[in-house]
Automatic annotation (TrEMBL):
It comes from the Eukaryota. Residues 18-40 are annotated as: Disordered. Its EC number is 3.6.5.2. It comes from Stegastes partitus. This is small monomeric GTPase. The gene is LOC103372607. The keyword Cell wall biogenesis/degradation does not apply.
């Protein structure tokens, strides 16, 4: 297996040095005492949620992250990601700051054993396919098998059909993405790293889910990521969920 130290940084604003962050969602003791007093749970803004972008090479993982981080799309020749690196983003949710540490992985097969090692302590995985690439969609099942093998069972998973702006080259209908997402009970939406459609929504929905998991109050209804996405879909008329 390749050693992480030997890998090149993905870009200037990423770093390959990975400080071992062990997020703490709050001890059981705290949750129990909060339940007894019914006091509202307090979100710890120091929490860092490890979020990983995965999917075949070329589906647009780096582009999605650049669009989310910098609000821009850099067209031109495709340069495959080497290794793995992260960028930190703070997402405001309900007046608190959710810290996402977003890892961009290399989709190429030769890096697969390296990226597996990162799944173990991931809190969220954004799994991408390219709506113009049937093979990237067909490979989603294999990705989900790997995720279930290497990631924690309670990891937040979201399926994204990227390059939604390329309607003329579409190979996968939206309802095919919806059906696959329904089969695996994961939220789904189509995104475009080029136009920015649903890019903020994808990360915000994940941040909201992670926040609610961290402060889940026994007397309060569970946050429904599907309903949240549906509400947003009504506004943008663009995405689906399950
Ligand atoms: N039209 C369009 N092109 C996109 C979109 N997202 C990415 N691309 C293009 O697709 C190509 C691959 O994008 P990347 O972001 O490098 O793909 P990746 O998934 O990070 O690839 P690996 O690093 O090899 O895993 C690039 O030429 C991008 O410009 C999109 O939403 N729309």
């Amino acid at each position: 297996m390749e050693r992480m130290e030997s890998m090149e940084p993905i870009s200037a604003h990423y770093t390959t040095a990975y400080p071992e962050i062990q997020p703490d969602y709050g001890s059981t003791e705290t949750t129990e005492s909060q339940a007894k007093t019914s006091s509202p749970p307090i979100y710890d803004e120091e929490l860092v949620h490890k979020t990983i972008l995965v999917g075949d090479s070329g589906v647009g993982k780096t582009s999605l992250l650049v669009q989310f981080d910098q609000g821009k799309f850099i067209p031109g020749s495709f340069s495959a990601t080497v290794g793995i690196g992260f960028t930190n983003k703070v997402v405001p949710v309900d007046n608190v700051k959710i810290k996402l540490q977003i890892w961009d992985t290399a989709g190429q097969e030769r890096f697969r054993s390296v990226t597996h090692a990162y799944y173990r302590d991931a809190h969220a995985l954004l799994l991408l396919y390219d709506i113009t690439s049937k093979s990237s969609f067909d490979n989603i099942r294999a990705w989900l098998t790997e995720i279930h093998e290497y990631a924690q069972s309670d990891v937040v998973i979201m399926l994204l059909g990227n390059k939604a702006d390329m309607s003329s080259g579409r190979a996968i209908r939206r309802d095919q993405g919806e059906r696959l997402a329904r089969e695996y009970s994961v939220p789904f939406m189509e995104t475009s790293a080029k136009t920015g459609v649903n890019v903020q929504l994808a990360f915000t929905a994940v941040a909201k889910e992670l926040k609610h998991r961290a402060v889940q109050h026994p007397n309060k209804p569970k946050f429904q990521i599907h309903e949240y996405i549906e509400a947003q879909r009504e506004k943008s008329g663009c995405c689906s969920y399950f």
